[in-house]
Amino acid sequence: MEITASLRHALLTDREQTLTRIYQRAFPLVRHYVVQHGGTAHEAKDVFQDAVVVFYEKAVQESFVLSASVSTYLLGVCRNLWHRELTRRARLPLTDLTDEHTQQVADAEPTADTPDSLAVLTYVEQLGERCKSVLLAFYYFQQPLEQIASTHHYASVRSATVQKFKCLERLRKSVRAALSEAFAHA
User: Fold this and answer.
1) What crossing angle do the helices spanning 15-36 and 2-13 adopt, rounded to 10°?
2) The pLDDT value given to residue 7
3) Calpha distance 49→24 (Å, rounded)
4) 140: DSSP letter
5) DSSP structural state of residue 68
6) What is the mean pLDDT of the chain?
7) Which residues of the chain have pLDDT under 50?
8) For 46-74, how does the pLDDT look when each residue is reduced to its tens digit (9 = 90+)?
């Protein structure tokens, strides 16, 4: 409990230095794990960055209690994120898009058979223009974060990544709340 409080204080008072120390200790472990499990050093950086965002947001909350070292916690989060990525890749193998694929997507019209996708778009619309723009640019148009950072005038790619994460979390919370409400009335 004492360590968690001092960590929270360090993150709130000197975030950059604290996160740099955490990075220096934990990232080599994460890089080793991801590379050993079919990833690249670049993918390890992406996974680690996502894990640090999750860690930071939890660590600054008063209710957060760390029961392991920061490195162990981050490695656990990274292992879960990497496992999720590998599962996603197995389900959706990479294929090259042809002009035929592009035309099929362009010709596709939303129908009454696709209410779920339209419902999600409704929630995206409710997030506000900035979040909507960031999420659509990344997930729908598959723009690189560098381009999104530039287009949306973020100070860095990291800022764009954090904003994308926050918008995605807001979207998840909205959808979860709606699903909970729907199941409660069913």
Assistant:
1) 110
2) 85
3) 13
4) I
5) S
6) 81
7) 1, 94, 96-97, 101-102, 105-106, 108-114
8) 899 889 988 888 888 888 888 889 999 99
Q: In the chain, where does DSSP find H-type helix?
A: 2-13, 15-36, 41-59, 70-91, 99-107, 115-126, 129-135, 145-151, 157-185
Place of tokens 């997030």: 127
Work out whether the CA dihedral 57, 60, 64, 70 comes out positive or negative. Answer: positive
Structure tokens at 70: 């920061």
Q: Cβ of 52: how many Cβ atoms within 10 Å? A: 22
Joined together, the tokens standing for residue 53 give 């965002």
Judge whether 149 and 157 are in contact, CB under 8 Å.
yes
What pLDDT, on a 0 to 100 scale, did the predictor assign at position 117? 52
Chain length of the chain: 186
How far apart CA 36 and CA 42 sit, in angstroms, is 13
Q: 102, 122, 132, 37: which is closest to 75 by C-alpha?
A: 37
pLDDT value for 114: 47
Q: Are 33 and 76 in contact (CB under 8 A)?
A: no
